[in-house]
Amino acid sequence: MILSDKTIKKLLNNKELEIYPLDDIQIQPASVDIRLGNTYTIVEDTSSNIIQLSGEIRYKTIQSDKYLLMPGQFVLATTMEYFKLPNNMTAFVEGRSSIGRLGLFIQNAGWVDPGFEGEITLEVFNASRCAIELQAGRRVGQLVFAQLDQDADNPYRGKYQGQKGATGSRIYLDNELQI
């Protein structure tokens, strides 16, 4: 079940769901607006021009209130907000239509697991023919919350728990699943 603004406000007031910083205006009828933080991360070039999923990937991180995203460029960004989800709730990251209509794709690789705590790393891509200026504090998407039928047996305690800033892939830590 998707949570309404009334339920979101109740959970926030009871500290069952935590989001900070949060302005009341961010709470929409069935979502919470998310804003860009000031951290951007890009994959560093390699001598072979090949990213190998089995090894640690090197990144360059930039802190700035503004970032110029060139056409065809991909960057990791972070939310301004820090989230703490209870063990019986999940969330989906959705880009804003107004942003998508400019050719700016805001994506998250899947949903936010129950029990997750941290800033959310966003995958940002400029599909436009023009550069797009990203600015910290700009609303770029929304988080849609859904209630689980019961607490998760294994809430999230993974490699991104507690992350702050635009966090690069840690896929090299996935030793138990080799495909």
Distance between the termini: 34 Å
Query: Tell me, what is the CATH class?
Result: Mainly Beta
Structural class: mainly beta
Order of helices and strands: HEEEEEEEHEEEEE
Low-confidence stretches: none
The oligomeric state is single chain
Major β-sheet profile: 10 strands, antiparallel
Instruction: Tell me the β content.
Output: 35-45%
Protein name: dCTP deaminase, dUMP-forming
Function: Bifunctional enzyme that catalyzes both the deamination of dCTP to dUTP and the hydrolysis of dUTP to dUMP without releasing the toxic dUTP intermediate.
Pathway: Pyrimidine metabolism; dUMP biosynthesis; dUMP from dCTP: step 1/1
InterPro entries: dCTP_deaminase, dUTPase-like_sf, dUTPase_trimeric
Structure commentary:
The chain is 7% helix and 41% strand. It has 179 residues and is mainly beta. The protein has one domain: Distorted Sandwich (Deoxyuridine 5'-Triphosphate Nucleotidohydrolase, Chain A). Strand 2 (27-28) and strand 3 form a beta hairpin. The radius of gyration is 17 Å and the shape is globular.
What would a concise description of this structure say?
The protein is mainly β. It has helices at residues 5-13, 97-100, and strands at 18-20, 27-28, 31-43, 59-63, 66-69, 74-84, 89-95, 104-107, 111-112, 117-126, 132-135, 139-147. The strands form 2 sheets. Strands 1, 2, 3, 4, 6, 7, 8, 9, 10 and 12 form a 10-stranded antiparallel beta sheet that branches. Strands 5-11 form a two-stranded antiparallel ribbon.
